[in-house]
Amino acid sequence: MNRVAIVHYWLINYRGGEKVVEALSKIYPDSDIFTHVYDAEKMPEQISRHQVQTTFIDRLPGGKQWYQSYLPLMPLALRQLDLSPYDLIISSESGPAKGIRKPPHALHICYCHTPMRYLWDMADYYFKEAAFIKKVGMKFFLPALRKWDLWSASQVDVFVANSRFVAERINRIYGREATVIYPPVNVDRFMRLEKKPQGYYLYFGQLTAYKRADLAVEAFNRSGRKLKIAGTGEERKKLEAMASGNIEFLGRVSDNELDELYAGAEALVFPGIEDFGIVPVEAQAAGCPVIALAEGGALETVIDRVTGILFQNPEAESLNQAIDEFESSTLSSQACKDNALRFSEQRFLEEFSAFAQRQLIAHHS
Predict the structure, then answer these.
(1) 191 by DSSP, 3-state: which?
(2) Domain 187-343, what fold?
(3) Which of 21, 56, 123, 343 sits in a 20 to 30 Å window from 192, CA-based?
(4) Quick check: 317 pLDDT over 80?
(5) Distances in Å between the alpha carbon of 148 and those of 48, 63, 89, 185?
(6) What are phi and psi of 104, to 5 degrees?
(7) Is 53 helix (H, G, I), strand (E, B) or coil?
(8) Residue 8: pLDDT band by 50, 70, 90 thresholds?
(9) Do the domains at 4-184+344-364 and 187-343 have one common CATH topology?
C-alpha cells in the first residue's frame, strides 16, 4: 500500500484550498498532512483527525498571525520536512507548498490553485497595497523567491490545475503542462434550496480590491437597482462611502443567511477575475443565475445566456448592459443546478483518485 503525504501552504482559514485538502484526505484516509502553520479550531474534523505536522514557521513568534511575513523562510522550512517514508506526495499549491525534498522513489503531484499571485501576476498589486516595511522586503526577496519558485516547479512530477485559466498560467510561468481537475464544491447543500427571487441582486465575497466590488457598487449607483453585499474586507469602508442608499452591506453572513440570500437573489453579480471561483458554482447550485466578467474561471463555470450573462469589459456600463440583458431573458434555475453538478465533490473524488492511480502505475513502471 502506498503511503501518502498531503502538503498545504497553511491551514489557518477554511476556504477553497482547504476544501481541496479536505477532499484529498477523504480519498486517502490514512494520509499525513504537512503545513507551515495550523489552527485546528478553524479546520473541519475531516482534516483534524489526520496527523498534521507543521514546519518551524508555526513556532516562530506570532507564527499563526504573521505567517505571511515569514514567506522568505518558507522554502527552507519545506526542505526540512522528512518525506522519505511516502510513496505519493500531493502538494496543494497557491503559496509555498511544492518545494519539498522529494524522495527518489516517490511521485509528486502538485494540485495548483494558481502560481503564487504575489510573486507573479499580481506582484504589482501586492506591492502597491503593502506597508513600507513589506515593500522593502518585497524589493529585496522577490527575485530570489521567483527563482526558487521556478526551481521548485521543476521538481514536480505532474501538475494538476483547478481550471484551464490556471493551466495556461502554469504553462506560461513554469513551462509545464497541467491536467485540469476542477475543485470540489459542496453543491448538494444548495440544491435543496427553492428559488424565490425577491427583487435584489447579490454580491458575495471578500471586499478586497482585486475582486472588484467597487465595479458592482458603481453600476448599481447608476441604475438604482437593489444590491446586497455580503462579506467583509479592507475595502468595506471605502465602498460604503461611495454607495447609494439602494446598496445594503450585510457584513459576514452565516450559512443559513447565505442560503436565504442565494434563494432570494435575482442573480449573483461577480465582477472580479478568479482562478476558478467557488461562489458562482454555489449560486448556480441554488438555481441562481450569475452575471460575471468574461474572464478567468467564470468562462468555465458559467454558460453564457444559459446559466448567466457574461459581460466583456470591467466597466459599470458593461455590467449594467449585462443586467439589462438578463432582465429581458428567461434563464432557467434548473439549467443552473444541472450545470453546477459538473463541479460536485463526488466528481472530484472520482476524477482525482483515478488520475493519481494512473500516474502511480506509470511512475512505478
Answers:
(1) helix
(2) Rossmann fold (3.40.50)
(3) 21
(4) yes
(5) 30, 22, 19, 32
(6) -60, -35
(7) strand
(8) very high
(9) yes
